[in-house]
Amino acid sequence: MTFAQNVLIAARALQQINNQIRSLENQLQMLVNQRKNLTSLSYSSLQTIERSLAQTQQLLNQAQRPPYNVNQIDQTFQRLYPQTYSGSTSSQQFFNDAQSRWQNSLAGHQDALRVQAGVVQALDVTRTQIDELISSSQSAAGILQAAQASNQLIALLTRQLADLTAVVAAQARAQSLDGARTTANQAQARAQLSSFLTSGQGYQPQTVQMFH
User: Rounded to two decimals, what is the model's pTM?
Assistant: First the structure.
């Protein structure tokens, strides 16, 4: 075998070795990329989101006179917001019902303000979360981190929608209590006027306990 043939064989062997090295390098790079794609996001806002949702839910659960409970609402309306009053209803009963309706309306507005305040107080935390998640998404090293950042942003948006729903519900509840109070007061006024006109005795003063 000549010197030239030996050189050619060595060159071919060296080329094969170089090809194997490049193949190993490519495989190594693929492993590195896969590791990046499987690396979890270091920042998580889920606990903060869950805590904020729990706080909003707690404010709604603290609603008073009446609470957010269908059965209790029905019972309250049947007792304090009747469509008509009987002719035998006493002045004390009229006063007590009117006072309870006023207290319900006042409590409804207080509940709405508390829910609104809770949502507003959470805005600073929300802004910080958004900044962190956007930064994490932009600097994501792989697919998994980018997906996790996106999912957390979606969860944050869902929480904001839940807060908005709570605010709208609380405000609508307060307005509904005001409307029901007006309607019930009108029914009470008609009953009192009818009793006055049909009694045939004119106005008869009665003792009414104002505060109890």
Answer: 0.66
